[in-house]
Amino acid sequence: MRELIKGIGNQIQEAIKIGSSARFSIPEKEIRAVIVCGLGGSGIGGRIISLLVNEELKVPFILSNDYSIPACVDEHTLLIASSYSGNTEETLYAVKEGKKRGAEIVVITSGGELLEMAQQYGWNHLVVPKGQQPRAMLVYSIVQQIYILNAYRLISSKEMDCLANVPDFLVRQRDMIHAEALRIAKFLHQKTPVIYSGSFFEGIAIRFRQQLNENAKVLCWNHVLPEMTHNELVGWAGGSDAFAVVYVKTDFDHPRTNYRWDIVKEIISKKTAYVTEIRAKGTDRLTQNFYLIHLTDWISIYLSELKQVDAIEVNIIGHLKTEMGKRK
Ligand code: PA5
Q: What gap in Å lies between CA 205 and CA 191, rounded to an integer?
């Protein structure tokens, strides 16, 4: 896992090659909505992208992390099916339903039934390198979605232009990222992490949580501002030292949300001393997203090492899929 995370710059470059050499066949029909169907390590990219492009995209962007798709999905919907293995049953159910409704389907996968369906029905598809853990291939899912949205003329090439600079940027930040990741991992060790972010970076906070779950084998939760200031904040009434709070800060919160951050910090600091902050780096939203993905990936790895657990192993997910396979 360390090697894969270290290779993020190469993964971005490789993913750019796949996206830029794809030959999309684009239909005449108008696309009126986008839905990304995918689970876990293959679904989170959709959430990150939906929040990244929401200031530019003129049509609704929906996510399905389940078997079903909403009733609004029709022939004017671009349905992006993201499954690294190509065999995730929820995604396959969603895609089959999308096909019945005549949706415009595009596939991101490394193989499996999803690739077979894409080839059989002539759907646009992007094939990513095989044989890794899905969550270690998030970069591919994010980059391919940018290329897909651009190919369907739903977003400009702005994100693609920013992408090209990310690998060098991350190399320049490397020492700082490692020092920060180790510091945060030590801070989280033997606590339950609680992650708070602005809502534009909810996808990043969820990814952070998922990486802590899967790599470091810990439970944790996340919530976003401003929403948590209307409910969860009250839950801090009694205080607790069982939790370690991480604020994920970026330059893209609404100015009024920044006031909320100040007040939230003041309130929580009276309830627990276990509070720290991560600050995103980079001049644009895309770079700050990648910076945080990389930093939080390393936090999960350092925490797995402190806990002496195997970061790669996710036997429980495999077991669940096997058991589901027996129940037809
Ligand atoms: O991290 C994991 O292994 C999971 O979250 C998978 O990504 C999830 O089970 C979906 O599988 P796939 O990515 O093959 O569609």
A: 17
